[in-house]
Amino acid sequence: APDTPSTEALDVTPDTRKVPTELIAREVARRRTFGIISHPDAGKTTLTEKLLLFSGAIQLAGTVKARKSGRHATSDWMEIEKQRGISVASSVMQFEYRDHVVNLLDTPGHQDFSEDTYRVLTAVDSALMVIDAAKGVEEQTIKLLNVCRMRATPILTFMNKMDRETRDPLELLDEVESVLKIQCAPVTWPIGMGKNFRGVYHLLRDEILLFKAGEERADQEFEVIKGIDNPRLTEMFPLEIEQLKMEVELVHGASHPFDLDAFLAGTQTPVFFGSAINNFGVREILNALLDWAPAPRSRDASVRAVEPVEAPFSGFVFKIQANMDPAHRDRIAFLRVCSGRFERGMKVKHLRLNREIKVSSVVTFMASSREQVEEAYAGDIIGLPNHGNMQIGDSFSEGELLQFTGIPYFAPDFFRSVRIRNPLKIKQLHKGLQQLGEEGAVQVFKPVHGGDLVLGAVGVLQFEVVASRLLNEYGVDAVFEGTSISSARWISSDDKKALADFERSSAGANIAFDAANNMAYLATSGVNLKLTQERWPQLTFHATREHA
Ligand code: GDP
């Protein structure tokens, strides 16, 4: 009988849940959610592994790397990922350290696949920038830092590979300041480099941490010597210590002292030197993350700001991953908790669809496996299995109408037109592209005047991923071809007449609509884009759009 209350309706509801606010406040305060940003090969994988080693989340070195090279299948849910040995899909690792709960959001490092990376950064509260000290600031670092800047995310910096011949440390700081436009506050300073790398000097603690090579070290076995003037140092390496004293004087004179507020405002980055592979300098980074990086903060949800310590649960989806388990057709929506306490089995409202769902099966991502979550707080990431009804940017709450902001789509740099070999599969093609578009795997544009669909991506590898998934998941053999399109801009204007005129003009032939039905202009060249913008000053051409 339809009116009989189901057992679900008898379950805990928001009104009857008594969640002590002190408990929530305590849990929020001990959480740190961060991501690592780096150019490929700077050492992100190695550092991730060492961070997990410290926490005891993994016992053995090599686990993360093995996953990366495809020998473990934890995150290698797709053939293409295995073939290339790169992490196409990001994942989440949670571990405890010093009574804190750390959520490390992994990001795909490959330069050809960065849209996902961008969006993962909207779900973190701080970021760790890893720089190869031999190479300095690289292209991908610049792009990722710019994304962090959109939300003024606090950044810690790790200068890696000091056991190699690197560039001059002062020059490295200078490059970070001038290229990335962020103030550097060195916290540790290297003593020598390469074969003569002796360790680091902690500028705030006046301590020297002696370097010892060794890959498998899990714990801090490095000797600490107190005081830069300690005679033992002069005995051990007279040359390097003289050099260090000179440099420290320079550093004190020329660089900025660490300023917590400037760091939290995203305008200054504390800089650490070390060697991830030798597990050297990694603990300092982890401690800085716990001591200085922010716990979850309030988030804009359009109607108001939501505080993490509020009792009602809320959160938003920043990433969708399909078919992690090839045996199921499920997709997993990665939700960042923004407030309250999530409990398995509770009911939450999917606000875009105005639908209440009971979340009984949720996954969290421990370092080595996917596990069931029992509870989660602001800063935590939970995985919601679904059949395609959840989209990037969707907000969830216990009922209040919220829409978390700040999940960006980036104007693609690469374009392909897509057609199919078998016209009978047109429906499957559209369904597949619709879903892959919603998932954020690729951006799909439908030209207003018909013709083949146009796919846009931030990196060309995305096309390969889409082609392989269309074939494997939707049985569609699609042909991707080059197009004359070179860039895309989303268009908006308060001037309805100007918009209508634009649609009717000759430029109107280049209009297309994306998967969320936003109007975009597909430009054939930089010049074409510039001219069109000049000709239509009443319109705004956006290089990013927010999911709404
Ligand atoms: P990712 O692409 O940023 O994830 O970089 P990886 O962690 O895979 O590291 C790239 C390469 O650099 C690997 O061969 C690592 O062994 C090496 N590497 C990482 N950290 C260090 C380090 O501190 N010193 C040296 N010499 N090599 C390192």
From TrEMBL:
Q: Does the keyword GTP-binding apply?
A: yes
Tell me which Gene Ontology terms the entry assigns under biological process. regulation of translational termination
Ordered alphabetically, the record's keywords are:
Cytoplasm, GTP-binding, Nucleotide-binding, Protein biosynthesis
What InterPro entries does UniProt report for this protein, alphabetically? EF-G-like_DII, EFG_III/V, G_TR_CS, P-loop_NTPase, PrfC, RF3_C, RF3_dom_3_sf, RF3_GTP-bd
The cross-references to SUPFAM superfamilies, in alphabetical order and at most eight, read: EF-G C-terminal domain-like, P-loop containing nucleoside triphosphate hydrolases, Translation proteins
Q: Which GO terms describe its molecular function?
A: GTP binding; GTPase activity; guanosine tetraphosphate binding; translation release factor activity, codon nonspecific; translation release factor activity, codon specific
Q: Where is the Tr-type G domain?
A: 29-297
> According to its record, what are the GO cellular component terms?
cytosol
Q: Show the Gene3D superfamilies listed in the entry.
A: P-loop containing nucleotide triphosphate hydrolases (3.40.50.300), Peptide chain release factor 3, domain III (3.30.70.3280)
UniProt-annotated binding residues for GTP: 38-45, 106-110, 160-163
Q: Which Pfam families match?
A: EF-G_D2 (PF22042), GTP_EFTU (PF00009), RF3_C (PF16658)
The compartments listed are: Cytoplasm
Family, according to the entry, reads as follows: Belongs to the TRAFAC class translation factor GTPase superfamily. Classic translation factor GTPase family. PrfC subfamily.
Stated role: Increases the formation of ribosomal termination complexes and stimulates activities of RF-1 and RF-2. It binds guanine nucleotides and has strong preference for UGA stop codons. It may interact directly with the ribosome. The stimulation of RF-1 and RF-2 is significantly reduced by GTP and GDP, but not by GMP.
Please identify the protein, giving its name as recorded. Answer: Peptide chain release factor 3
The root-end lineage is: Bacteria, Pseudomonadati, Pseudomonadota, Betaproteobacteria, Burkholderiales
